[in-house]
Design a protein that fits this description.
Layout: E1 3-8, E2 14-18, E3 40-42, H1 53-60, H2 74-88, H3 94-104, H4 109-115
Antiparallel strand pairs: 1-2, 1-3
Length: about 140
């Protein structure tokens, strides 16, 4: 179902007009949903592309997504972690954000682990430490 944005020249409002099919969509057929006005000027709309979980995971499997990790560069690791957070839609919590900030400054994962021993610990206190990906 196509959705187009217009400015209504009658009521001076920005409106979205829904059409049932692409073939039905035309500036001549558009009516303002607020005032039923016919004097509409079409606007350039933002485009949103929805990705499935599978598509996101496929994109993350691209070797360029992990560029720089082979050199064990803390900054590359920080960039990777931020990309993962963005791609998965999961914001970094305060501890992870602090860790990523420190990696971006070039601190080694080992030094960060020593100064943050509870990082990654679960409620029982188990866990902690970094895995092979620095998490």
């Amino acid at each position: 179902m196509p959705i187009y944005e217009y400015v209504c020249l009658d009521c001076r409002k920005r409106v979205s007009v829904f059409f049932r099919t692409f073939s039905a969509a035309s500036d001549e057929a558009a009516r303002c949903p607020r005032c039923e006005g016919r004097h509409l000027r079409r606007l350039v709309s933002r485009v949103a592309v929805l990705k499935s979980e599978e598509n996101r995971l496929d994109e993350m499997a691209d070797p360029s997504f992990m560029a720089g990790l082979e050199n064990e560069d803390p900054r590359a690791l920080a960039g990777f972690m931020r990309k993962m957070s963005d791609e998965m839609g999961e914001p970094l919590d305060a501890e992870m954000s602090e860790m990523v900030d420190r990696l971006e400054r070039g601190e080694s994962p080992e030094a960060i682990e020593q100064s943050m021993p509870d990082l990654g610990a679960d409620a029982s206190g188990a866990g902690g430490g970094f895995d092979d990906f620095g998490m």
